[in-house]
Design goal:
The structure is a homodimer of 190-residue chains.
Chain A: H1 3-13, H2 18-26, H3 37-49, E1 53-58, E2 66-71, H4 73-84, H5 97-103, H6 110-145, H7 148-188
Antiparallel strand pairs in A: 1-2
Helix pairs in contact in A: 1-4, 2-3, 6-7
Chain A binds a DNA duplex (28 and 28 nucleotides) through α3.
Chain lengths: 190, 190
DNA sequence: GAATTCATGTAACTTGTTACATGATTTA
DNA sequence: TAAATCATGTAACAAGTTACATGAATTC
């Protein structure tokens, strides 16, 4: 129960459509919250039923109808309540298929693992570039349309994503070194 | 669909009960895969129905009956298939309530966020100690009962957890510094 | 003319969480 | 004697994924 809260949070900035939310999440919130479009629409219906949000139909010539959602007073209260209530354990539970496979790596050829870890490094490098781009967009445009307090926290999270990606690249490189040593050792002593 | 695979993986080491699996996951796999006991038992039934695992009832005087599960040939094949098939995107989707709350931090008092981030740092420090302990256990006992190839990969993941925890501590401390500057600035210029 | 973006959603299914229940043995 | 550990599960619910459907407008 937290996609609901993310939606309320986005609507606390400004009214938007489900589609807008999906895009917003995909290139910012995305780093720590993901949702399928279908899930968003379902949640929007649920939130509207509870009276936490409402929508206005926007019809324009030569365009599809858009349901522009906005947050209600009740919604703001609910969001504030949730926001103030931090969980006891701040580390979320993880489900990481990649790491699980590495965990059972002894049942795979070392070369295969080497290959997957180098893929992992490349993925993290791409992530760094994506973070650069988000920062660029925030710095260039959002400063004008968003309040500096918001930008302050977005930057903190941006730093977090950056440090995590960098650390994982370093880790991956260390893994490659160790794996290469292992492969060499296997060659000498089969 | 991956708790099923983690269970098969654990059973590829040795036969065990659902209870054993829960404990094993809680202090190793736990860092990248979590499961409730109830979920494990449900999955065990499902896997048995599919013929991927089977169990033997172990009755002992003065103890409860244990269902000792073991993997079948079919189960081994299924596990190997899954293990070789890495996902295209290696980064799992995240659901991080803490980060989401920081994202909307502009709607909270800075002092509250400061407090939560220091809690976060303490949590990560505790995590580091937990990793130390796992390493100690692996180094002291598991070398004898587990094959060195397995220990090799467990150590790689241990390094990963360690570097992540350390990075997040560093990040948290940087946040505190910036927040303190912000608080001070607000004092000067209210 | 084909692919992509905008925009909405339903249905079926799979996973994950929470609460509850039971009962023996072992340790503090 | 109370709490913790061992050991198993069921039921109800909440959340997430996948596949499918529709259709207009825009860009290549």
């Amino acid at each position: 129960m937290s996609l609901a809260q993310s939606i309320l949070g986005l609507l606390s900035y400004e009214p938007m459509t489900g589609y807008d939310m999906k895009r917003f999440m995909d290139n910012s919130l995305n780093f720590f919250w993901t949702a399928q479009a279908s899930q968003i629409y379902r949640e929007l219906s649920a939130l509207e039923k509870k009276g936490l949000i409402a929508h206005q139909l926007e019809t324009a010539e030569g365009r599809m109808d858009r349901k522009v959602y906005h947050i209600t007073e009740k919604g703001r209260e609910e969001f504030a309540r949730w926001l103030h209530d931090f969980p006891e354990t701040l580390t979320p539970s993880t489900r990481d298929e990649f790491s699980t496979k590495i965990f059972f790596g002894s049942q795979l050829p070392l070369e295969e693992i080497r290959f997957q870890i180098s893929r992992y490094i490349r993925e993290k490098e791409a992530e760094l570039k994506a973070i650069d781009y988000v920062d660029y967009v925030i710095g260039k445009y959002s400063q004008r349309i968003h309040r500096p307090e918001e930008v302050f926290f977005w930057n903190l999270l941006s730093k977090r994503n950056r440090i995590l990606a960098k650390s994982l690249i370093t880790w991956g490189q260390e893994c490659l070194t160790e794996i290469d040593q292992q492969i060499e050792a296997n060659h000498r002593d089969p």
